[in-house]
Amino acid sequence: MPLPSEKEEVWRYTPIDELRLDEFAPTATSAAAPVSASAQRFVVGVAADLPERGALLGVLDGRPLTVSVQDAQLSERGVRVGGLQVLGGEPDVLGRVLTGGDALVRLNDAFHPDVVVVDVPARTVVDGPIVIVHWCSAEPAEPAEPAEPAEPEEQGERGEPGGVAPASFPRTLVRIAQGASAEVVEIVAGPPGSARSLVVPVTELSVADGAHLSYVGLQVLGAGAWHLARLAAVAGRDATLRTFTVGLGGSYDRSRTDALADGAGSSTELRSAYLGTGDQIHDVRTLQDHAAPHTTSDLLCKGAVAGTSRSVYSGLIRVRRGAVRTEAFQTNHNLVLDAGAHADSVPNLDIQENDVRCSHASTVGPIDEDQRYYLESRGIPPSRAEQLIVLGFFDDIVERSPVPSAIGRLRQEVGLRLADTLGLDLEGAHG
Amino acid sequence: MSIFEVEGLHASAGARDVVKGVDLTVRSGEVHVVMGPNGSGKSTLAHALMGRPGTSVTAGSIRLDGVELTGTPSWKRARAGLFLALQQPIEVPGVLLEAALTEALAGRSGASQEGDGGQSIDDRLKQEAAAIGFDERFLRRPLNVDLSGGERKRNEVLQLGVLRPKFCVLDEIDSGLDVDAVRAVSGRIERATSEWGLGVIAVTHFHRLLRELRADKVHVLVDGRIVATGGPELAEELERTGYGAYEPGA
């Protein structure tokens, strides 16, 4: 199977042709590998920001290293979190949600070292989010060696020029059985700095009949990372699925989200946000796939590009034959903050049924002049008015996070990057 | 005592000359009402006074306490003590009302915060909301998001009450409001004229604003010029006879 190419519609506007797989090698992390101090600090920070969690999994290059369960009743109630072994040898658990897939999915199939599993049995309500933190190495890939004393990636953060950089293939499977309900927060992070790395995560979300899943995905990799992520979800009869994916880090950040409304009466709510700074590329692809009657999907994707960064949003609503009374909405708003930045927005509809209600809307443009004038007319100087408007643009979507307890962390991650970009004084910004 | 003076003002919206020589002098506590038919230049006048981009002053002067405002940006006019209540208030997603007012007040000189009695913004918001029947739940919303037309108008008057400017320009504040809301809003503005000596320029189509708001002067604006000035009785006359007598060629 060949690697994807820019000639394919789903890879238009992307730098995918620049991907050279021979520049990367899968990391050889073993369970005994040292965990860097910055990785530890990051996990501790996440734990502090999400105190009411159900469980926290620390995952290094796709391999779960630590599982700490806050809610002692989880295992009593049959909730399983951890590596693939928690499913006790159940066969063929992968690929049920994400069928097909391209060469990148095949690479993940071949190289994921383990599978992060969240498995919630029928009619079980999990209180507090299950938090998964993926730390993806960016130091030069080296053969596994005896543990070195401290912080290896801080000594050699930048790969040798032209050397081989690490590639990691995180794999996650979330299964919410019939009538159950849970929240999952999945964070993909790596060392700050511009060391190269390739991160190819695949996440499958299975939401059974009458079940509810709220999912937040946050990507905060270093500035040299290529992040090529795939999220696939399926919602059964009367199930609800809410996702919010936020792309902030990386050099090239692609996230593709496919949500299949497979059971009648299911409803999905898809949210995405991205902020481009420097010369980043953010690339968001979504599919709202309706295969059953009386299903709804509502997508809102908001992004801003600054500096010389670029973004691509491309979304498809597909209503298959038989999916009558489908309601599907898709909205994409882009703020272009600098003259050198650029955003493309490509909405698509593929409707094979008559009795449906579908709409899409998209905007690409600078900060709204009327909004700026309105704030100015209250005595707020234009530079501050613009900061407030951009912060508000993101807060508008962040505050609607399907996992409310993650709002603080999300706001902080967005705010940090906006502060850098806009020269921002964050004090008082959220009143 | 402050004074707001408009002298020989010409203003254009786009390429079109719309305001063609307007003179107005408003002192603290006075209420001036500018009435006129559609297209007479009322809104362009209001925006020219506040300095909206796209509206340009081609001749004349706008002064607040002798300080020339023509050519200065809107935010500096606001800080000098001028306020515009927009005909169509703008929705600003994600920017909370309280956050915007905190920013606005932070930039003000002490003088324009006189009489706030050291109250927190939160208290002032609640107090002003109660005064005009603005639902307190809306105080937690981003600016004008998911508010009806009438609620947005009340929100403008609420902000006026919190910011306590020296002079305000009300651009058709009564449109979109029901009778009770017009009474509440105009009553609040009337009280402000004595509470802190607010000077008012109210631009409107309708006489109904003047039931609670006591006009000192009524000006008739036709084709960009003030063609008549009188007391409240002039507004009543316009209500009966319309603008026909003042139209060009009449």
Overview of this protein structure:
- The complex is a heterodimer of chains A (about 425) and B (about 250).
- Chain A is α/β, with parallel strands linked by helices and about 425 residues long.
- Helix content of chain A is about 15%, strand content about 40%.
- Chain A has two domains: about 350 residues, no CATH class; about 60 residues, no CATH class.
- About 5% of the residues of chain A have low confidence.
- In chain B, strands 6-7-8-3-9-10 form a six-stranded mixed beta sheet, with helices on both faces. A four-stranded antiparallel beta sheet of chain B has the order 2-1-4-5, covered by helices on one side.
- Helices cover about 30% and strands about 25% of the residues of chain B.
- In chain B, strand 7, helix 6 and strand 8 form a beta-alpha-beta unit.
- Chain B is built from seven helices and ten strands.
- Chains A and B meet through helix 5 and helix 6 of A and helix 2 and helix 3 of B.
Which features would summarize this protein structure in a list?
heterodimer, A: 12-stranded mixed beta sheet, 22 strands, B: 250 residues, alpha/beta, Rossmann fold, 4-stranded antiparallel beta sheet, 10 strands, 27% strand
Short description:
The complex is a heterodimer of chains A (about 425) and B (about 250). Chain A has about 425 residues and is an alpha/beta fold. In chain A, about 15% of the residues lie in helices and about 40% in strands.
Task: Give the number of DSSP strands of chain B.
Answer: 10
Number of domains of chain A: 2
Spatial separation of the terminal alpha carbons of chain B: 40 Å
Distance between termini of chain A?
53 Å
Query: Mean pLDDT across all residues of chain A, rounded?
Result: 91
Provide the fold topology:
The complex is a heterodimer of chains A (431) and B (250).
Chain A: E1 24-26, H1 37-49, E2 55-60, E3 63-69, H2 73-76, E4 80-82, H3 103-111, E5 116-120, E6 130-135, H4 152-155, E7 165-168, E8 171-176, E9 181-189, E10 197-199, E11 202-207, E12 212-220, E13 225-235, E14 240-247, E15 252-261, E16 267-276, E17 281-290, E18 296-305, E19 310-319, E20 327-336, E21 342-351, E22 357-365, H5 369-376, H6 382-398, H7 407-422
Parallel strand pairs in A: 1-7, 2-6, 5-8, 6-9, 7-10, 8-11, 9-12, 10-13, 11-13, 12-14, 13-15, 14-16, 15-17, 16-18, 17-19, 18-20, 19-21, 20-22
Antiparallel strand pairs in A: 2-3, 4-5
Helix pairs in contact in A: 5-6, 6-7
Chain B: E1 3-13, E2 16-27, E3 31-35, H1 42-50, E4 55-64, E5 67-68, H2 74-80, E6 82-85, H3 97-106, H4 121-132, H5 149-163, E7 167-171, H6 179-195, E8 199-204, E9 217-222, E10 225-230, H7 232-241
Parallel strand pairs in B: 3-8, 3-9, 6-7, 7-8
Antiparallel strand pairs in B: 1-2, 1-4, 4-5, 9-10
